[in-house]
TrEMBL record:
<dbReference type="InterPro" id="IPR010839">
    <property type="entry name" value="AtuA_N"/>
</dbReference>
<feature type="domain" description="Acyclic terpene utilisation N-terminal">
    <location>
        <begin position="159"/>
        <end position="197"/>
    </location>
</feature>
<protein>
    <recommendedName>
        <fullName>Terpene utilization protein AtuA</fullName>
    </recommendedName>
</protein>
<dbReference type="Pfam" id="PF23544">
    <property type="entry name" value="AtuA_ferredoxin"/>
</dbReference>
<feature type="region of interest" description="Disordered">
    <location>
        <begin position="399"/>
        <end position="418"/>
    </location>
</feature>
<feature type="domain" description="AtuA-like ferredoxin-fold">
    <location>
        <begin position="424"/>
        <end position="494"/>
    </location>
</feature>
<feature type="compositionally biased region" description="Polar residues">
    <location>
        <begin position="404"/>
        <end position="413"/>
    </location>
</feature>
<feature type="domain" description="Acyclic terpene utilisation N-terminal">
    <location>
        <begin position="73"/>
        <end position="148"/>
    </location>
</feature>
<dbReference type="Pfam" id="PF07287">
    <property type="entry name" value="AtuA"/>
</dbReference>
<dbReference type="InterPro" id="IPR056362">
    <property type="entry name" value="AtuA-like_ferredoxin_dom"/>
</dbReference>
<feature type="domain" description="Acyclic terpene utilisation N-terminal">
    <location>
        <begin position="201"/>
        <end position="250"/>
    </location>
</feature>
Amino acid sequence: MHWHPVGNPYRSGEECFLSDLRNPRASDWVAGTCPCMEKETNVYNEHSSEVEDYTGNWSNTVRIGCASGFWGDTMTADYLSEITMSLLTAMKNKDSNAGYPVDFVQVISNAGGVNPEACAAALQAVCSQAGIDLNIAVVNGDDLVHRWSFHAEVCHQAGPISRALDLGADIIVTGRCVDSALVLAPLVHKSGWSPDRVWSAEDGNFVVTKPPKTGGIVSKATVAEQLLYEIGDPACYQLPDVNCDFTQVSATYMDGYRMTAVCCVGGPRSKDKAERTAEAILKRTRAIFKQLKMADFSKVNIEILGSENNYGHNSKLPAGSREAVLWLAVHHPDKRALNILAREIAPAGTGMAPGLTGIVGGRPKVSPVLKLFSFLHDKDDLKIDIAMNGKHVETYTPPKVAQEGQSSGSPKQSEVKATGEVHIGQALTEVTVAEYFAHLLEADKGAKVDRYECPGIHGLNFVLHEALGGGGIASLRSDPQGKAYGQMMLDFEIHDMPALVDIINES
């Protein structure tokens, strides 16, 4: 582990500031990475002889380890570096019952899903079997299904999670909560911040690093791109902890069934053969529907991957290549109808266009469509309960926060733009970006493009409305979340740009 003085992250092109310090205190350091990590050196050994007295208590720093996983993943937590082992040995020499990180068991997770009580009960059973006594807290109240006829969950804020920590929880299980609350809650708990303090924390800084000698790059461009990931207006990003009047709610509801078939096609004119095969399968299936008096498909999506399908009219391979992948996805209100279609896919390999080499994953499976609908809900109309070890402890009441005199988010300094930045801003407008993605925008549903300027990072954030075909599970597209859209923008051609040397000289 490498360390840097608090408030003094390294500057590009420099080694860390440690060479400027003498006899630092343990409380003056924070974790981080700098170019001198490439030397495989250890800051403690080089710069400080006082670390031997370190007891494990940080006065000015809250250290939070984060992990994010999918269903079924395995999470691991590594606490024991060489230095940590030395520190723990020193602790055990003073106290035979010590010698381990006493706070490692404090865990916060939204792994409760739609049943946090059952998740906590399962954890309690594991602890009991192992003979471990831990306080397991549950923060519920996010489920609004009892109010409406569809499944709906509130995105919890950090407040009730922080309160559970105040009550002595070792493990906290929540249902739906905003991602940032998992990190903000321990900060509020350990720092004693009031809601007004959270609201007033307008300015700050952070250091982004990566382990040495690994792939990828940490730069202003990559960080700025991630900063704008999946948000709308950067000046008004609504989260439960920073918009005190409302909290975000998402609801899911059943909307029929879907099925996706993926087939590989090879040889000359692969794109044409894949398209003809898909059309023939649908025609045959529709004839069966007509005989059985079944309704037609609600929606059909055919994509030929390998022909730059997602680029639409901007494709540089409109005729495709000699290898293609057929993506055939359909939506229907009746599950039986899609089972009929699933049985019609395999015969295409022997009875239709030559070159269909196989069906990825075998016969396609039919799955229900659960659509997501997000909206705002009044915080004061929620009942948030905190339970500890299976017993109700208290009902959390969100504190009132004064909002007068808050910043609108606009920069306080004057804005200066280089020639190249101005030129790019003039070329990338809401109109030109809408034209670029016209093949993906659903005009009949009121599709539009919004542009937001982010002068602090010299960036532009574009929000494409009605551009995902329903998004998530509801979408029939091969890119249902628009993950490639930002990368596709890199191919947007801007003409008559000033010379790069002129841009650099001006900046």
